[in-house]
Write a structure and sequence with these properties.
Layout: E1 6-7, E2 11-15, H1 21-28, H2 31-34, H3 44-53, E3 65-72, E4 78-86, E5 91-98, H4 107-122, E6 127-133, H5 137-145, E7 149-160, E8 163-173
Parallel strand pairs: 5-6
Antiparallel strand pairs: 1-2, 2-3, 3-4, 4-5, 6-8, 7-8
Helix pairs in contact: 1-3
């Protein structure tokens, strides 16, 4: 299966291209973005290595992670990314990052909504999950707005940047999703 090209009124979700990597590395290097991510410093070389490690020809293969670029439809400028983990043939895990200049502009809401429509309608996925730091209120509020249910609060389950941290696990079933 090929990675999708998904459109909203203002956005396009598509496979990453080499031209996206400089902006990708730039916003991932910002402290406000890295705060809730596994990295502290993110370089252009990190972006290249991630890009080269993804084989879009195997898109949809269980056990693999893929990144989709979130771009502005008018300019094709990268404004964020959507991470997709095909847990198995029936379940996905997602994660999302938006460049600071575009946060608060409904980019993540539009992108994740469009992807959920695709996952549930076209891929016939049964369940989508997302795991977020319990302090990342912007992330978990977005998941709740999309209809995700908090299924777990993991207490001090992850050693994160030198301290034990809590995480929330959210899930949404196809049968619970309101298609738009």
């Amino acid at each position: 299966m090929n990675p999708p090209v998904l459109e909203t009124k203002k956005l396009v979700l598509r496979a990453f291209e080499t031209k996206d990597l400089a902006l990708f590395a730039q916003y991932r290097a910002e402290q406000s973005v890295a705060q809730y991510q596994s990295w502290t410093h993110y370089t252009y070389q990190d972006a290249i290595e991630l890009f080269q490690s993804m084989d879009y020809a195997t898109f949809g293969s269980p056990g693999n992670w893929y990144q989709l670029a979130i771009t502005l439809s008018e300019t094709d400028e990268l404004v964020g990314d959507l991470a997709i983990h095909f847990i198995d043939n029936e379940q996905l895990e997602i994660g999302f990052t938006v460049a600071p200049a575009y946060q608060g502009q409904h980019v993540a809401f539009q992108a994740v909504s469009r992807f959920l429509n695709y996952a549930f309608a076209d891929l016939n996925i049964h369940r989508v999950i997302a795991i977020t730091d319990s302090k990342n209120s912007a992330s978990f509020r977005l998941l709740e707005k999309l209809g995700f249910r908090r299924e777990a609060h993991f207490v001090q389950n992850i050693l994160f940047k030198g301290a034990w941290g809590d995480e929330y696990l959210y899930a949404l079933l196809q049968s619970e999703y309101s298609f738009s």
